[in-house]
């Protein structure tokens, strides 16, 4: 549209004589001669404008692609979650004769949606080093233990055996994960943990850096 408007104005300028109407043939011929370069000038200007607009469109497209790549990169590297064992209420979990995956149902933070509060499993969205913390609370002379697992591999345990009252056990680990690796907290066999609205039993983690 800009090119068409400029073309019309330029053509109009070329068609207007700079001298008054003169019946003299020489002057008329001179006018025509002076107007001869106009079509060529129009083509030159149009070529320059077309090249300029094409370059501008190319730069705009590159910028959009770059912005989109930055957005995708940021969303993939913003990963953090923190979850509590129960949504509400008070109660015990366990004991069970075998390992039992704990489902931390109340996710107060879940940036990147890598933690599944329905299964209790965290799935790494990208390759990188992640840091995890977990804590359990037990009481009444029954052991309280929970293990951190990466896929099917046992990493470490948080464990306490209360002799009276209540005790809290916690641990932490930084793990190199591949995209798709899964991390969970599993209640150890014959352990029992207690939870109330104070949220003693927790599981959290975040991405430190990609690799």
Automatic annotation (TrEMBL):
Recorded GO cellular component terms are:
extracellular region
Please verify whether the record's keywords include Electron transport.
Answer: no
Q: Record's superkingdom?
A: Eukaryota
Signal sequence range: 1-18
Record PROSITE patterns: C1Q
Please give one Pfam family short name: C1q
- Return the InterPro entries for the record: C1q_dom (IPR001073), Cerebellin_Synaptic_Org (IPR050822), Tumour_necrosis_fac-like_dom (IPR008983)
Enumerate the UniProt keywords alphabetically: Secreted, Signal
Q: Where in the cell is it found?
A: Secreted
| Residues of the C1q domain | 77-211
Descriptive protein name: C1q domain-containing protein
Q: Which organism is it from?
A: Maylandia zebra
